[in-house]
Design brief:
Layout: H1 3-13, E1 20-27, E2 30-37, E3 44-49, E4 53-59, E5 64-69, H2 74-92, E6 97-100, E7 107-113, E8 116-121, H3 124-137
Antiparallel strand pairs: 1-2, 2-3, 3-4, 4-5, 6-7, 7-8
Helix pairs in contact: 1-2
């Protein structure tokens, strides 16, 4: 599946809820959907994919969960995007459980859906920056 096809899939998955607003587009050869809280547009989550192989959901706080399936069929791509859109909406609606790691205090977010539990974490670069900021304060 190409990014343009994924964009069409995301358009079809656009949530129609009064609590949130979603828009779909293309950026850096990737299809994306951004879901925002209508009352607080600074609270958002976005789903990204180049169309096949790599799927990601990210919050405004840079917490991220990535899903990789290089051999995904079109049906599997649709299912993966559907799940990520559901997770994005759950986050925007405040249905996640915020957590911190015990030793370094890394932030993470646990989201639940019909398929199980997903934990969004800081990307490696953000995690290293987080640790360096903590040590500088000490």
């Amino acid at each position: 599946m190409k990014a343009e096809d994924a964009q069409a899939v995301l358009e079809g998955l656009r949530p129609r809820l009064s609590e949130c607003f979603a828009f779909v587009g293309m950026q850096d050869s990737r299809a994306y959907m951004r879901v925002e809280d209508r009352e607080d547009p600074d609270r958002w989550a976005a789903v990204y994919t180049p169309g096949q192989g790599y799927f990601s959901v990210q919050t405004e706080t840079t917490l991220t969960w990535d899903y990789v399936d290089d051999d995904a069929s079109d049906e599997e791509v649709h299912a993966a995007l559907s799940r990520l859109v559901s997770l994005a909406v759950s986050y925007v609606l405040g249905q996640g459980e915020e957590m911190r790691s015990r030793r370094l205090g890394f932030p993470s977010l646990r989201l639940h859906d019909d398929e199980g539990t997903v934990t969004l974490k800081l990307p490696m670069q953000e995690g290293l920056s987080f640790v360096l900021r903590r040590f500088r304060r000490s």
